[in-house]
Structures are given as C-alpha cells and as structure tokens.
Design goal:
There is one protein chain. Helices cover about 65% and strands about 5% of the residues. The protein is built from eleven helices and five strands. About 20% of the residues are buried.
Length: about 350
C-alpha cells in the first residue's frame, strides 16, 4: 500500500515537472515571437513624410543629375586636339601665302590660343564638369577654321588672286581713314579690317565672326566678276562694320536725331488712322543702318558710290518707287525704297 502511494507520488511529481517544463518552453517561444515582432515593427515602412518644397526638390534633382561620362570628355579632348592640328597647318599655309595675310592674325592671335585654352580646360575636366561651354566654343572654332580654309583656297588660286587683291585693297582704303581717326581719338573698334571671299549669288554682305582680333568677312557675289560698276558698294558694307564697331554710336545717332531706340520696331501701319510724323520717324529709325552705310559709302568713294547706287536703284520713270516701302513680315524692311536712297 505504501509502495502504491509512493508510485502515485512519483508519477504526479514527474507530471508536474513535465507541466512546468512545457510551460517554460511555451513562455520562451512566446517571448521570442514578441521580440521578432518588435524588430519587424522597427523595420516596417514609416508613414510617408510631407512632400518636399520646390526648392528642396530642385536641389535633389541637381544632386542626382547624371554627370558627363569620362568618354565624353575624352572625345572632346580628341576633337580639340584635331582642331589644334588643323589650325597649326592652316596658320603655316596662310603665313606662306601673301594674300592670306589678313587671316594670319586671326589664326595666330585668336584661334590657336583659344584652342590651347580649351584643351587645358578639357584636361582639367572631371565627370562633374559642365561640358556645354567647351563644346559650343569648339563648334564655333571648327566653323571659323572651315571658313578660313575656304578663303585660303581662293587666295591661293592664281585665277582669283588679282580679284581678291583688289577687293581687299578697296576695303582697306575705306577702313584706313576711320581706323586712323579712332586711334587718334582713343575710340576703340571691335572690328578694324576685312577680308573678301567670293561665293554668293545675291548682294554683297558683311559677316562678323566673333573674332576679337577685329576681322570681318566680306561675302561678294560671283556676278561682280562681270559687273565692275557694283564694286563701290563694298564701301557700304565697310560702313556697316564701322557703325557696329563703335560702342554707343547707334544710341548717339538716335539721340541726336530725336528718334527712339524702340522705334526700330516699325510695325506696318494699316493706314486707317493716317500717317503722322511720329510714324515716319519710326520707319526712318528702322532704316538708319542702311542710311548710315550709304552716307559712309559717299564719304569714302564720292561720285563712284553715287554712280553705283543710281545704276542699281534709280527708277526715274517710276515716281511711285519713292513712295513704295518694302515689308518684311509684320515690320518694314530695313532697306529704304531704292529711289529714295539715290535721292
């Protein structure tokens, strides 16, 4: 009997021990699960923050904007190296050809130093460098070298040598008085010389090529080969270059003649309200550059320029030519009626 009771006590003790062990295991598992759940909450996405302000958004966009690749920098450096090689060859060619003398200064004092500067900038470039200004300058110099190369081809052509020499000489004769006057009076000129190139089919025109050494390009039509009476018009183009080369000259002319700078925007009148003196002033202000260039041509070349202008523009049998104003879109054309220019 005592042995049976002892057996019950042992079995009961073992059962309690198993119960306590199981309860401890369950509590331990529960504690582990709560810890895992807690870490999950810590790692869970937070509630979305308010949208950033526009300024912050712009800063973030700028910070994440892709930078130029190293390959782009290397391509630019190679392009600049090739342009510098072309410029040196062209400079040597022009130095050896007497008629190319007006081009040498542009190559030696502008193109070659500028290319060297751009090459140095390209060597210092990093993936964070903005390449656009370097690319733009390289494109400008490439176009300039192409134009000078074409001019050198013409100037080395024996069949065109005398023609180009005469055109340069006439332009230089028109430049010399104003260049000397400006030098004596300490008036700086942004352009003080020109070189001619043939190849257009219309009227002559002058191009500024953003050359700090002062070169302008006179584009002359091939028909001038057979129309000698048109050559004094070259003085008109030099007049344009002089007018644009003196800082403040345009404003001074408008002031002295009581014209307004805004009057250059001469929108076409519909005639419904008539035409007053102020309207005429607006139109004349729109013509001012052409009128100044004509005056310059007369002062430089005298009766020869008058003969040229009359041969091209005079229409004495058509009086309405003096009243017919050409229109360019919504504005009056910058050239006065031809017969008015003759008068």
């Amino acid at each position: 009997m005592n042995e049976l009771r002892l057996l019950f006590l042992v079995v009961g003790g073992i059962a309690k021990l198993i119960y306590l062990l199981l309860r401890g295991v369950v509590r331990l598992v529960a504690r582990i699960l709560r810890a895992i759940a807690g870490r999950g909450r810590d790692a869970a996405p937070q509630a979305p923050s308010p949208p950033p302000k526009l300024a912050q958004l712009g800063q973030a966009t700028a910070a994440t904007r892709p930078a130029p690749e190293r390959a782009a920098i290397e391509r630019l450096a190679a392009q600049l190296g090739e342009l510098a090689k072309r410029a040196r060859v062209l400079e040597a060619r022009c130095t050896a050809a007497p008629l190319c003398a007006p081009l040498v200064q542009t190559l030696r004092d502008f193109a070659l130093p500028k290319l060297a500067e751009l090459q140095a900038d390209a060597r210092r470039a990093t993936p964070a460098t903005t390449l656009q200004p370097l690319v733009f300058s390289a494109a400008h110099l490439e176009a300039l070298l192409g134009l000078i190369s074409r001019m050198a081809d013409q100037r080395c052509d024996p069949s065109l040598a005398e023609l180009i020499d005469d055109a340069d000489a006439l332009a230089e004769a028109c430049y010399r008085p104003v260049v000397d006057c400006c030098r004596i009076n300490a008036v700086p000129l942004s352009s003080d010389r020109a070189a001619a190139v043939f190849g257009d089919d219309c009227s002559p025109w002058l191009a500024r090529v953003d050359d700090p050494t002062g070169l302008a390009i006179l584009h002359l039509p091939w028909k001038w080969l057979a129309e000698v009476h048109r050559w004094p018009a070259l003085g008109h183009e030099v007049g344009h270059d002089f007018y644009d080369s003196v800082a403040g000259l345009d404003d001074e002319l408008l002031r002295r003649h009581g014209l307004e700078a805004a009057a250059g925007d001469a929108h076409v009148l519909d005639g419904s309200e008539g035409v007053g003196l102020r309207d005429v002033d607006r139109i004349v202000a729109n013509w001012r550059r052409e009128l100044v260039a004509d005056a310059f041509g007369v002062m430089m070349l005298g009766p020869a320029y008058v003969v040229t202008t009359a041969a091209i523009f005079a229409h004495p049998a058509a009086p309405m030519e003096a009243l017919t104003v050409a229109i360019d879109g919504d504005d009056y054309e910058v050239h006065p009626p031809g017969h008015v220019r003759v008068a």
